[in-house]
């Protein structure tokens, strides 16, 4: 696609309500917005190869924003072993730059003060960064190690306000987790289960 055609195509794009809800969950989770210019940013999605179906679903939900299908790449971890990840980028766009301005401060991902969660946003966030505590415990958690404690408290307030979900925090070696005790698991499951992919149902307690 030449520069003029790409510019015209980009100008015809607008985020749908569903894409905005997904974007909220993805940015709270594993997604990144990369600033491309003073006015545009692009969305980058990357997961391990075991979650290839999940990446394909995200790509399909954003298909008009994606010019190149998901790609595989080898990634070296800090211990020197290699893994295979699957990833894709969207095109750069001014609307995504607005989201970058909300979710990033000094190149660090933050929690926007106007954050609002929908069931779809919570489900995507959980598929990205959540799991059950163990086979023996019905409790669930969200990994929020990249956020400061004050931001984690903002997230807990949103969960209480938007879904009446009571949470606690768990200190881990690399930061905090938001924990949903077993008493909250049925309510949490009722909210997110309609939006979870079949391949991600293992993350729930039921």
Layout of helices and strands:
Elements: H1 3-11, H2 17-28, E1 32-35, E2 41-48, H3 52-61, E3 71-76, E4 82-89, H4 94-103, E5 104-105, E6 108-109, H5 119-129, E7 130-132, E8 140-143, H6 149-163, E9 168-172, E10 175-180, H7 185-192
Please provide a brief summary of the model.
This protein is α+β, with helices and mostly antiparallel strands and 206 residues long.
Description:
- By secondary structure, the chain is an alpha+beta fold.
- The protein folds into two domains: 3-106, Endonuclease I-creI (Roll); 119-203, Endonuclease I-creI, CATH 3.10.28.
- The chain has seven helices and ten strands.
- The protein has helices at 3-11, 17-28, 52-61, 94-103, 119-129, 149-163, 185-192; strands at 32-35, 41-48, 71-76, 82-89, 104-105, 108-109, 130-132, 140-143, 168-172, 175-180.
- Strands 1-2-4-3 form a four-stranded antiparallel beta sheet. Strands 7-8-10-9 form a four-stranded antiparallel beta sheet. The chain has a two-stranded antiparallel sheet with strand order 5-6.
- The relative contact order is 0.14.
Span between termini: 47 Å
Structural class: alpha+beta
Could you tell me the radius of gyration in angstroms? Answer: 18 Å
Judging by the overall fold, what is the CATH architecture of the largest domain? Roll
The coarse overall form would be globular
The number of E-state strands comes to: 10
Domains, number: 2
Query: Total number of helical segments?
Result: 7
Strand content: 15-25%
What is the average of the pLDDT values? 93
